[in-house]
């Protein structure tokens, strides 16, 4: 994937040299859905940087002036809806057929909150997907207590499509039983992106 440049940021593939920056914001994940990515030491961060350097689903969000990685965006091509719609005929679809739907998300270093970097980078990613990759639909999952991400989705012009009750679990209650989270789904279509007012 090509680099995406914004006024203050560069969105690029991760590099093996990003380990220290990754460690800074993954050592203590603030949102429970990132707990499975928690990193306990710099050696683990180096392995994560190596892994991400070979993975097109993550983009490093870097300050243009310093090159510091302040967070990441992730994007996933969703081809499940095609298989479900086609049912048994799914096997006859060309393996080269591109999906027109993506899921996206973000995770940022708390030190850089409140400066508009999440919005600036997410705007650039959505615009790239819609305008350069001709994606039709983009959606995001957000926990019902993650007010910042919900506000970001709304600012991006995404609409809330529903709430999945006790959708997923990342942590346990004190007694060891799973604690399930309610999760909102936000989405936007390309035609809505083109009609938004900003």
Compute the number of helices: 6
Order of helices and strands: EEHHEEHEHEHEEH
- What is the 3D shape? globular
Distance between the termini: 26 Å
Query: Helical proportion?
Result: 25-40%
> What do the pLDDT scores average to?
87
- Structural category: alpha+beta
Major sheet: arrangement of strands: 1-2-3-4-5-6-8-7
Number of strands: 8
Q: How would you characterize the largest beta sheet?
A: 8 strands, mixed
Global Rg = 18 Å
Provide the low-confidence segments as ranges: 85-97
* Residue fraction in strands: 25-35%
Question: What is the strand and helix layout of this fold?
Answer:
Elements: E1 4-5, E2 9-12, H1 19-26, H2 42-53, E3 58-63, E4 69-77, H3 80-86, E5 101-108, H4 117-131, E6 137-143, H5 147-155, E7 159-172, E8 178-189, H6 190-195
Parallel strand pairs: 5-6
Antiparallel strand pairs: 1-2, 2-3, 3-4, 4-5, 6-8, 7-8
Helix pairs in contact: 1-2
